[in-house]
Amino acid sequence: MASVYHPRPFADMTPADFDGSLAVDLRAAFILAHAAAPHMRVQSGGRIILFSDWLARSGRPRYPGFLSYYVAKGAVISLTEGLALELAADNILVNAVAPGPILAPPGTSTDEHQKVADATPLGRWGGEDEIAKAVLGFIEQDFVTGETFRVDGGRHVK
Hints:
single chain; mainly alpha; three-stranded parallel sheet; Rossmann fold
């Protein structure tokens, strides 16, 4: 669930900035899956749950300055689908959670917090329990693989 979320306008972005986001947001997910899969094969199956973002799952960026984050989280969706295909024969199910407004970043003002709640159809932030419920849902499933589940309070429809 590691993530780098630092705004940087495209004109100011360096290849190192881009690579840094990919290393944390995408490569870390690959490394996790690559390390876990052999252990899951030994026990005849398992679950790998990765983390993307509601914006990447929605297929449309909304915030300038987060290009590398958006690209990396979109690639996590592709990684999820590719791994689901690669690992299905081993009974390893691979899915992803795509959080929306769950917890406000440090430094979020009361006004900013309320604007996000107002832009969310359910009218509130979700909280970490909503992510835990999504993860538990994937763990309990025996016939779902390659899916990315938005947990965004309906934010993607607004």
